[in-house]
UniProtKB/TrEMBL annotation:
Superkingdom of this protein's organism: Bacteria
FHA domain mapped to chain residues: 83-132
Keywords from the named record: Phosphoprotein
SUPFAM superfamilies named among the record's database cross-references: SMAD/FHA domain
Protein name according to UniProt: FHA domain-containing protein
Lineage, top ranks: Bacteria, Bacillati, Actinomycetota, Actinomycetes, Mycobacteriales
Pfam families: FHA
Organism: Mycolicibacterium aromaticivorans JS19b1 = JCM 16368
PROSITE patterns named among the record's database cross-references: FHA_DOMAIN
CDD domains: FHA_FhaB-like (cd22693)
Length: 155
């Protein structure tokens, strides 16, 4: 009788161990294959369970505006070419910020939307409060933090 209980205990423990391993692998798989760089942004006002688009999102971005940092007030007209941001002299927006990299980030147009991507910077690029790891769509009026500099797309 004790041998049977011991065998059932071993089998139960082994089953629990495999369930634990399976759950860990499932979580890892979801983390690896989940879309990276995805950012949730609250848009509009909630009304009866639906989200209404804000006034800013009805207009396409036409300007890149520096809202904070040494270049506050700088406005760049957006065209069809990507905007390179960093300390390099050939950047579209040349930063004098010690916390920005030589080639820090790039804003690229894709249709009517603009996407920001970090170019392997030391301190990272943040869309609102989320770190950017891949190309992420930038909604109009959402702050992009590059070191001490904050930029926004404006209509």
């Amino acid at each position: 009788m004790q041998g049977l209980v011991l065998q059932l205990t071993r089998a139960g423990f082994l089953l629990l161990l495999w369930l634990f391993i399976w759950s860990v692998l499932r979580v890892l798989r979801n983390d690896i294959y989940a879309p990276t760089g995805a950012v949730m942004v609250r848009r509009g006002l909630a009304l009866r369970g639906t989200l209404l688009p804000s006034r800013q999102q009805r207009h396409a971005a036409r300007y890149l505006v520096v809202t904070e940092g040494a270049l506050a007030g700088t406005r760049i007209t957006l065209g069809t070419q990507p905007v390179l941001i960093g300390r390099a002299d050939d950047s579209t927006l040349v930063l004098t910020d010690d916390y920005s990299s030589t080639r820090h980030a790039r804003l690229s147009p894709r249709g009517a939307d603009w996407y920001v991507e970090d170019l392997g910077s030391t301190n990272g690029t943040y869309l609102d409060r989320a770190k950017v790891t891949t190309a992420v769509r930038v909604p109009v009026g959402t702050p992009v933090h590059i070191g001490k500099t904050v930029i926004e797309l404006r209509p």
